[in-house]
Write a structure and sequence with these properties.
This protein has helices at about 45-55, 75-85, 90-105, 120-130; strands at about 1-10, 15-25, 30-35, 60, 110-120, 140. By secondary structure, it is an alpha/beta fold. Helix 2 (about 75-85) crosses helix 3 (about 90-105) and helix 3 crosses helix 4. Pfam families: DLH (PF01738).
Length: about 160
């Protein structure tokens, strides 16, 4: 049976609402794939990807970068939600690390086997997560925003063994 639920975590005063999906039949902690949403927020697209990953035997965890599962309704709202993170990469890194730190504490998750994927803005988020030194097994950025951190344009990024 597929289990889905919201998982709250905090970044300072902001309460974020991740979405987890996994099969209840798992007898041991499972590898987890974190899903970073596009500029629109943690909507059904990210949650459906988490469900799809659960169907493949992983734990899918849709990250909430904006807090309180906020969604942008149009381009202007989406831009307003995303821009503070693009302009302050330290804030982006702190927020996505809050999600990572929550994921590795979940009893269902094998904390040694965590990867991350993201689309567009989410691609930037997962690249910044690995840039921050998070011990990820892999990262995939689909159509990602390729903005290196200042002073790190030639830095090599590697997943951890």
């Amino acid at each position: 049976m597929l289990v889905t639920k919201e998982v709250e975590y905090e970044d300072g005063d902001t309460v974020c609402k991740g979405f987890i999906a996994y099969h209840s039949s798992a007898s041991k902690p499972l590898p987890c794939v974190m899903v970073a949403h596009d500029w629109g927020g943690r909507g059904e697209g990210a949650c459906n990807k988490a469900r799809q990953l659960a169907g493949m035997g992983y734990i899918g965890f849709a990250i909430d970068m904006y807090g309180n599962a906020k969604l942008g309704k149009d381009k202007a709202e989406k831009r307003a939600l995303m821009t503070p993170f693009r302009e302050n990469r330290g804030k982006l890194i702190t927020r996505i690390n809050a999600a990572f730190n929550k994921v590795v504490q979940l009893p269902e998750v094998d904390s040694e086997k965590v990867a991350a994927i993201g689309y567009c803005f989410g691609g930037l988020c997962v690249l910044d997560l690995i840039r921050s030194g998070a011990p990820l097994k892999g990262v995939v950025s689909f159509h990602g925003v390729l903005l290196p951190l200042e002073g790190e344009s030639n830095k090599s990024l590697n997943a951890k063994d």
